[in-house]
């Protein structure tokens, strides 16, 4: 699909700042070479590999087009292997609907640093701790620690940012000189 068509149908952009992994599973003798794959619908993005580290610091931004905010964002962590298939190191998913809902609010009267919404960990989400949606320098951000599933241990720290895409305005139909 052409890039311009994606933008036309997009409600906005989700910038995922992949910060770090904490206490990830060991897959190569004493360590691992982790990377993350993010997917939403048909989109799939991959982080860089961090060599020999179970507490990797990616500090990397990945951006997804959002056409349907009800789709979950899926996160999978792998250990990069040279001579065999990459080993799974756990997965998680998160809902961007709360962040999208906040983006629809009129936040002009909210001071910088305001916490707009709190999400609590429960059995239906992968949150390892409370997740805050807040305003910072005019940006809508969500801080998130995800507990990895289907693995013995590990967490991933992310920061989400909602980026609204301005809708194009129709040109005036009035072509009179005045």
UniProtKB/TrEMBL annotation:
In terms of PROSITE patterns, this protein maps to: C2
One cellular component GO annotation, for this chain's record?
Answer: nucleus
Q: Does the keyword Cell cycle apply?
A: no
Name the keywords, alphabetized. Answer: Abscisic acid signaling pathway, Calcium, Cell membrane, GTPase activation, Lipid-binding, Membrane, Metal-binding, Nucleus
Per UniProt, subcellular location reads as: Cell membrane; Nucleus
Record domain C2: where: 1-112
Q: Which InterPro entries match?
A: C2_dom, C2_domain_sf, CAR1-11
MF terms per GO, please?
GTPase activator activity; lipid binding; metal ion binding
Share an example GO biological-process annotation for this protein. Answer: abscisic acid-activated signaling pathway
Q: Which family does it belong to?
A: Belongs to the plant CAR protein family.
Can you say what this protein is called?
Answer: C2 domain-containing protein
Q: Which organism is it from?
A: Vanilla planifolia
């Amino acid at each position: 699909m052409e890039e311009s068509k994606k933008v036309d149908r997009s409600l906005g952009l989700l910038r995922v700042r992949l910060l770090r992994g904490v206490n990830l599973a060991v897959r190569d003798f004493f360590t691992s070479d982790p990377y993350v794959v993010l997917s939403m619908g048909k989109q799939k993005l991959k982080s860089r590999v961090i060599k020999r580290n179970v507490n990797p610091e990616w500090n990397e931004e990945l951006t997804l087009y959002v056409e349907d905010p009800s789709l979950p964002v899926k996160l999978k962590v792998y250990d990069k292997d040279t001579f065999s298939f990459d080993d799974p190191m756990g997965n998680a998913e998160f809902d961007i609907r709360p962040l999208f809902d906040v983006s629809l609010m009129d936040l002009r009267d909210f001071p910088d640093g305001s916490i707009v919404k709190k999400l609590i960990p429960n059995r239906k989400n992968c949150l390892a701790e409370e997740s805050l949606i807040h305003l910072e320098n005019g940006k809508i951000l969500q801080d998130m620690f995800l507990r990895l599933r289907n693995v013995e241990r590990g967490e991933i720290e992310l920061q989400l940012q909602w980026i609204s895409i301005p809708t194009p305005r129709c040109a005036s139909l009035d072509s009179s000189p005045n």
